[in-house]
Amino acid sequence: FIRDTKSSSGTFLNHARLSPPGVESKPTLLKDGDVIQLGVDYQGGTQEIYRCVKMRLELNRSWQQQANAFSTNTLKTIRSLTTADAASCTDCCICLFRIASFQSLFVAPCSHVYHYKCIRPMLMSHHPGFLCPLCRTFADLEATV
User: Fold this and answer.
1) Which end of the chain is more exposed for a tag (fewer CB within 10 A), N or C?
2) Dihedral (C-alpha) 45, 50, 56, 57: value to the nearest 10 degrees?
């Protein structure tokens, strides 16, 4: 649950303010994927700059840690790269070329596969965080295994 405790700049849930300024809101249930914003972005005249904080919630994502159809299929795709079976290969969603044997690959924590040279600029610009371009799953690449 989330509640605004009489803040003047506001608490927003999925872009909707929970209560007017200075009024305490009722507790609101949070769900996976909700966007929380604390405060508002404002840039006024001389030195008046306020910044907000935005967060996207990830709740009950334990299913990602277990073997599922998605991760099992990705493992099959990677194993098929060691064979000459071109029909079972996939494409890199960034460059749209085939992922094939003897290429440098990056396997995201969500099991999507990319050419390393294609995904490298994204990895370097947001390190250690990684947001998958396909499924929008966020992962900390430096988290303990």
Assistant:
1) C
2) -160
CATH code for the part of the protein at 69-140 = 3.30.40.10
Tell how far CA 83 is from the center of its chain. 32
Residue spans of the domains in the chain: they are 11-57, 69-140
**Helices and strands per DSSP (H, E), number in the chain:** 2, 10
- The phi, psi pair for 28, rounded to 5°, reads -120, 130
Strand, helix or coil for residue 7 = coil
Burial of residue 2 (number of CB atoms within 10 Å: 0-12, 13-18, 19+):
middle
Per-residue pLDDT of the chain (145 residues; tens, 9 = 90+): 999 999 888 899 998 999 998 999 999 999 888 999 998 877 666 766 777 888 988 887 776 666 666 667 777 767 766 665 555 567 888 888 888 777 888 888 877 888 999 999 988 888 888 888 888 888 888 877 6
pTM of the model: 0.44
